[in-house]
Design goal:
The chain has 72 residues and is mainly alpha-helical. The longest helix is centred in the last third of the chain and has 10 residues.
């Protein structure tokens, strides 16, 4: 159980992935991490666990998102 928790913690969150990896933001300007977490896919159950953290990080990054524009 502890190994799974450590693996989830070290895997990164949707907020970082949607901003750093090209093509993962899918044109979302605001809350791209939350949008990344709720997308359909085989890992959806795991990414839903990341949703609260992505919501907090995306909220703090709204000024940067407003300046940057949609993430491609």
């Amino acid at each position: 159980m502890m190994a799974a928790l450590i693996a989830l913690t070290l895997s990164g969150c949707g907020s970082i992935i949607s901003r750093a990896v090209p093509g993962q933001g899918h044109g979302n300007q605001y809350y791209p991490g939350v949008q990344w977490d709720v997308r359909d896919g085989p890992w959806r159950v795991i990414t839903i666990l990341d949703l609260p953290l992505s919501l907090v990080v995306d909220t703090m990054l709204i000024p940067i998102d407003a300046h940057h524009g949609p993430y491609e």
